[in-house]
Amino acid sequence: FPGEVAAAAADSFPPVAALQYAIDAVHSFTGLNWWASIAVTTILIRTVTIPLLVNQLKSTMKLNAMRPEIEAINMEMRNSMDPQSMLEGKRKLGELFTKRGVNPLTPLKGLFIQGPIFMSFFFAIQNMVEKVPSLKGGGAYWFTDLTTPDELYILPVLTSVTFLATVELNMQEGMEGNPMLQTMKKFSRILALMTIPFTMHFPK
Predict the structure, then answer these.
(1) At what angle do helices 34-65 and 109-131 cross, to 10 degrees?
(2) Domains of the chain: total
(3) In a shared domain, residues 90 and 113
(4) What's the pLDDT tens digit per position in 40-59?
(5) Which domain holds residue 83?
(6) Based on the domain organization, do 6 and 95 belong to the same domain?
(7) Any idea of the CA torsion for 142, 121, 163, 30, to the nearest 10 degrees?
(8) Phi and psi of 149, rounded to 5°?
(9) Cα–Cα dist 137/126, whole Å
């Protein structure tokens, strides 16, 4: 039903529309029903981001190797606490990161990459649910109608677990001595758990 998807994509933002066309292309090319087409598209997108995530892992390993030097500078800053020493410590940290070619926000790269993709998928599916009638019969097992909520709450729980796993895998290194990143990790964990009540009434 290419016309259905074209109508849904017509009023979508470009990244959302691109995902809708990608799902439709998989659906048309493979002959799979909608739920499987969505799953295959998700796997393909994940595959495309693997090189970026590998690069993040390498950068995180570099950041881990720098940890003793970072801790030494942080210790100097904590021991003195005067404004001049704090500025000097920040300058040393900046020079260290520049010298090693590492960004202190490296542990968040995975979320920065996958977050927009996740949101684009969410809006793409939501828009298709409203404007692609064939999704009513595009499911399987207990979720045959993709336009209605999952009464067993299995899919919302899976969404939450996947989100939480992404947070844990992408932010498992480089947290030590960085209160801001630790706070962001805690916030991301809470957000992952909140996806269950947030998505439980959404269409499958």
Answers:
(1) 170
(2) 2
(3) no
(4) 998 898 888 888 777 777 77
(5) 70-101
(6) no
(7) 50
(8) -65, 155
(9) 16
168 within a domain of the structure (yes/no): yes
The verdict on 87 and 131 lying in the same domain is no
pLDDT in tens, 4-30: 788 778 888 888 999 999 999 998 899
CB neighbours of residue 43 within 10 Å: 11
> Both 28 and 113 in a single domain?
yes
- Same domain, yes or no, for 144 and 177? yes
Residue 151 tokens read as: 């009464």
Query: Which of helix, strand or coil describes residue 199?
Result: helix
Distance CA 79, CA 108 (A): 29
Q: For residues 12 and 130, what is the distance between their CA atoms, to the nearest angstrom?
A: 12
- 54 and 148 assigned to the same domain: yes
* Lookup: tokens for 74: 């942080």
The verdict on 19 and 81 lying in the same domain is no
Chain centroid offset of residue 98 CA? 27
Q: Which two tokens stand for residue 180?
A: 């801001």
Q: What is the pTM of this model?
A: 0.62
**Same domain for 118 and 184:** yes
| Secondary structure letter of residue 107 according to DSSP | G
- Residue 37 tokens, joined: 């087409």
The secondary structure of the chain in percent helix, strand, coil, rounded to multiples of 5, reads 80, 0, 20
How deeply is 99 buried, as exposed, middle or buried, from its count of CB atoms within 10 A (0-12, 13-18, 19+)?
A: exposed
Q: What gap in Å lies between CA 178 and CA 66, rounded to an integer?
A: 13
- Cα separation, 139 vs 36, in Å, equals 8
